[in-house]
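Researcher: We plan to redesign the surface later, but first we want a full-length starting point. Tokens attached.
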């Protein structure tokens, strides 16, 4: 199988590429520079352009690219970068695959559990309507940008990803060193829910969604047992045998992070109802097993 991937150098893209190539599949990497290798295809999400003929023969396209949520303080300018990188890039990919004489069987397009906004104590599954807030609005526009692919009859899967537990990148790769130094602690009250998924399970879920011809629409890529921020931090401390006694108060987070603090302190109790219904089995359904897997993979 030939699979095209945007964001192939990111945490998830790198792991997915290795998984596919290990099983003998061919990966085509979309790059934002002149291609240097036969397995690279050019694209420019800012200009909403893709070298569509380079995608010919791909049976699946996995679109993961987008500006990092936690890479910069959320100024008005960077919030526009976050939104535009997702919406414009996704629209370009959707239109490119729709234009092909023989389009791919499936488009997997990244989204996030942020679409549900702050759910508090309430549980959200794929039937829950979108919430409010910057990320919720971005996610809605992001998902809607896949419309050209769906209208062309391409099976389109929306990947509503939670917090990926990995020592290689993402939020946990920043938390683990702090806990090792005895500097870890809850964020704000610690009562907000974090819907997590191990990197192993995330890649396995992507492979499952690529290979299942009847699955389309939104899927929550989260473990079945979401935990609070306090529970996640304490579990990481237990695995590392380190204390987690130094909290980061909400006012300090707002001072350091600006508008992003609102999302960091939000509660998202999201469950993977459709993934479980499809028969997917999690290797790491609880937080401690996910943390142990991350450390073993570091």
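Model: Full-length starting sequence:
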């Amino acid at each position: 199988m030939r699979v095209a991937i945007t964001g192939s150098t990111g945490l998830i893209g790198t792991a997915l590429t290795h998984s596919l190539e290990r099983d003998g599949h061919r990966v085509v990497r979309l790059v934002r520079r002149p291609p240097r290798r036969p397995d690279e295809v050019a694209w420019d999400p800012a200009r909403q352009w893709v070298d569509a003929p380079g995608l010919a023969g791909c049976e699946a396209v996995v679109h993961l690219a987008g500006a990092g949520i936690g890479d910069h303080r959320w100024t008005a300018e960077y919030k526009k970068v976050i939104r535009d990188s997702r919406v414009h890039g996704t629209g370009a990919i959707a239109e490119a695959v729709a234009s092909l004489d023989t389009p791919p069987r499936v488009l997997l397009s990244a989204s996030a559990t942020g679409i549900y906004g702050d759910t508090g104590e309430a549980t959200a599954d794929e039937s829950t309507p979108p919430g409010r807030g910057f990320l919720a609005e971005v996610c809605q526009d992001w998902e809607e940008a896949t419309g050209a692919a769906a209208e062309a009859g391409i099976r389109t899967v929306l990947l509503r990803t939670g917090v990926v537990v990995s020592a290689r990148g993402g939020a946990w790769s920043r938390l683990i060193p702090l806990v090792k130094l005895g500097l870890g602690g809850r964020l704000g009250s610690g009562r907000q829910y974090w819907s997590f998924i191990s990197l192993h399970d995330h890649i396995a879920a992507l492979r499952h969604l690529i290979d299942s011809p009847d699955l389309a629409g939104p899927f929550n890529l989260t473990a079945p047992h979401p935990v609070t921020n306090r529970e996640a931090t304490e579990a990481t401390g237990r695995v590392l045998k380190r204390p987690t006694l130094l909290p980061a108060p909400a006012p300090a987070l707002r001072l350091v992070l600006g508008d992003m603090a609102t999302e960091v302190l939000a509660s998202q109790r999201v469950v993977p109802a459709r993934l479980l219904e499809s028969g997917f089995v999690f290797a790491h359904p609880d937080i401690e097993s996910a943390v142990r897997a991350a450390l073993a993979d570091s």
